[in-house]
């Protein structure tokens, strides 16, 4: 019995470690985006670092206004912050699992919220990149719209939706079981 409890707490410790590492990487990336945007606003000229979109804007004949860069940068920052919100929702789940409160409505709702956050990020960055590409209508369309992060967070978002449904079904089965007894 003790080894089973130890395995469970080891899993929670591993999840917490992954959560903190993922949150740190997401926060660092978000800080890079914020730093680029602040440099743009302070000097009102493009920073030396390239824009962080998947669309390659180097070597374009047509110029994009600094205001447009600012709008796209803020949209990217908003979409990227959804990763941190999704990770936070998953962190809240570990509290329920540690207390063995598995089939609760809050767990299903947290999975649903995390899935929505990850999908907002995936489709949001995709939409921003497409809008940026359309904005720049150029002959050199070097773009990686189906990037790894788009695919990963799309799959992760749908997995969260699936888990939300599983836990809703578990809640229903547990309620039926309690009524039977």
Automatic annotation (TrEMBL):
<keyword id="KW-1133">Transmembrane helix</keyword>
<feature type="transmembrane region" description="Helical">
    <location>
        <begin position="66"/>
        <end position="88"/>
    </location>
</feature>
<protein>
    <recommendedName>
        <fullName>DUF2975 domain-containing protein</fullName>
    </recommendedName>
</protein>
<dbReference type="InterPro" id="IPR021354">
    <property type="entry name" value="DUF2975"/>
</dbReference>
<keyword id="KW-0472">Membrane</keyword>
<feature type="transmembrane region" description="Helical">
    <location>
        <begin position="12"/>
        <end position="31"/>
    </location>
</feature>
<dbReference type="Pfam" id="PF11188">
    <property type="entry name" value="DUF2975"/>
</dbReference>
<keyword id="KW-0812">Transmembrane</keyword>
<feature type="transmembrane region" description="Helical">
    <location>
        <begin position="150"/>
        <end position="167"/>
    </location>
</feature>
<feature type="transmembrane region" description="Helical">
    <location>
        <begin position="117"/>
        <end position="138"/>
    </location>
</feature>
């Amino acid at each position: 019995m003790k080894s089973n409890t130890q395995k469970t707490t080891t899993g929670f410790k591993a999840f917490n470690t992954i959560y903190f590492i993922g949150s740190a990487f997401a926060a660092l990336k978000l800080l890079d985006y914020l730093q680029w945007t602040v440099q743009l606003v302070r000097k009102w000229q493009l920073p030396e670092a390239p824009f962080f979109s998947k669309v390659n804007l180097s070597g374009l004949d047509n110029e994009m206004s600094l205001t447009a860069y600012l709008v796209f940068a803020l949209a990217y920052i908003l979409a990227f912050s959804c990763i941190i919100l999704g990770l936070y929702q998953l962190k809240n789940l570990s509290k329920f699992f540690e207390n063995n409160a598995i089939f609760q409505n809050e767990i299903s709702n947290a999975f649903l919220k995390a899935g929505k956050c990850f999908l907002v990020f995936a489709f949001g960055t995709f939409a921003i990149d497409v809008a940026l590409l359309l904005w720049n209508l150029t002959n050199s369309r070097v773009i990686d719209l189906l990037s790894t992060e788009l695919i990963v967070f799309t799959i992760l978002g749908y997995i969260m939706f699936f888990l939300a449904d599983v836990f809703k079904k578990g809640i229903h089965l547990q309620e039926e079981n309690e009524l039977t007894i």
